[in-house]
Hints:
The chain is of the alpha+beta class. Helix content is 40%, strand content 16%.
Amino acid sequence: MTGVRPKRGEGGQSLIEFALILPVIVLFVFGVLDLGRGVFAYNTLANAARQANRTAMVDQDVTRVTAVAVAAAPSLGLGSANVSVCFKLSETTERNCSSPTTDNCPEATRVIGCLAIVTTSLSYVPMTPVLGTLLGSIQLSSTSVQPIEYVCPYDIHLTCP
Length: 161
């Protein structure tokens, strides 16, 4: 005897079971890929905020700090509209730039110890159509806060060292 023959009418059972489970497997695989893309996007966003904040610690020019953040996340298509930079007093409890006038550390009175705050944000859309429809776009945001270590004297230098 070389093999067991299926009973009459049972030959397509495995094909139907495969057809029923295939969409679940495909959705799971693409869901894992979307999760990986989301983690990559968040890590890149956080890295862009940290890189820009390192610049803001020694060079408080908002345009240059924003350019560093944008350059640190080329794969995300991060734009200057997605980056906010502000400087707060060291004793502030605020850790974002949502109210720029509260505890502001203006350029004229900026001293070592003021906090440089850089926030990057992005709207992430999953590539899987089912997940994209269920979840929609997901707002990702990362904030980096560090004290200023060097106050750039703009009246003496055009660029900071």
